Amino acid sequence: MHPDTWLISKGRPTESGDPLNVAPVMASSFRLPGDRYYNRIEGTDTQVAFEDLLGGLEGGRALAFASGMAAVTNVFSLLPVGATVVMNDHPYHATGMIADAGAEQGRWTVERLDPANTDAWIEACSRADLVWVETPANPLLTVADLPAICAAPRKDGCLVAVDGTFATPLVQRPLELGADISMHSATKYIGGHSDLMAGLLTVVDDVLYDRLYEARLLNGATIGGLEAFLATRGARTLALRLERAMANAGELATRLEASEHIVKVRYPGLESHDTYENAKKFMNGFGAMISFEVEGTAERATAVVEHSTIIKHATSLGGIESTWERRAAIAGQEDMPPTLIRISVGCEHVDDLWSDISEALDATA
Ligand SMILES: *Cc1c(COP(=O)(O)O)cnc(C)c1O
User: Fold this and answer.
1) In CATH, what number does 3-236 get?
2) Which of 36, 47, 189, 191 is 20 to 30 A from 57, alpha carbon to alpha carbon?
3) Which regions of the chain carry the CATH code 3.40.640.10?
4) Rounded distance from Cα 140 to ligand 1 centre (Å)
5) Which atom of ligand 1 is nearest to the CA of 165?
6) CATH 3.90.1150.10: does it fit domain 239-363?
7) What is the pTM of this model?
8) Residue 69 CA to ligand 1 centre (angstroms)
């Protein structure tokens, strides 16, 4: 079955007379005796439907979480004391903070690598306990050579986890390349409407699944019934939304690159992108995130993002609506190029998006 059909047809009740959609089950406890005891332990039908839908999509079994960060924390909670963690030099900020906090407490050591430096990642797999690859990476959109990293010889017990939030399970398939864990902030594209928080870990190995399941019920990072319902509903249209958003992003990246107001455009689908060759190798499309540096000062870049009307000035990404922000204005991102704007391209008409962008650029020139 094609992934787009899977997303629409799976995760539904199967008995005659059942509703087409699993309803949002809002329950902490269940009547005994029965299969379910307590929500944090066994979850709900709504949660399981969401997990079946997204797990099967990637060819594994998924665990849903209260947020992307709850999923990240769950993985780090498996690490033995003294572990070596290898991760991106500029990971998603909160992921980097978790790694740094554990290192400060002496729980593990952390090494940061440029996602483009494939040789360094391959070498690290032979001695790391956790290889955490975020690709495409935030916010420079560097694409790691996932097939090479996932195939590298590993230290015994080394887990390779891929944060593929920017790509979605439709654009890259880390588990098929040999990764142990595919992680997503479902808050973003999977939910798709900026109205919920959710996270996912998908794995193939049953022992690893059980360890993560046990960790989740102890960490208490379970997803709410309403969130699981909304995330499932959002995921139904993921392929459609992404198709439009990626087409828009490809077009906008080309127009931005030709604009006199722009110094540099970063989009994995542009031949000028530093890791275009990696992206072309294994990605199915190039995602819908673009970063670009505006000519001039940080003040101008701020004025640009505040000028738009269609594109909303907001953080986060993956919604049906386009959003943008100046990245260096955000806590923890001060080392980013001062005029770098990151846009999450949504599903509006591309010409309206372009008018909004060009008006903002012209008005601030
Ligand atoms: C948003 C995000 C996270 C964290 O997810 P939340 O749902 O906000 O907790 C992790 N990684 C990446 C790449 C993200 O964009």
Assistant:
1) 3.40.640.10
2) 36
3) 3-236
4) 15
5) 13
6) yes
7) 0.97
8) 6
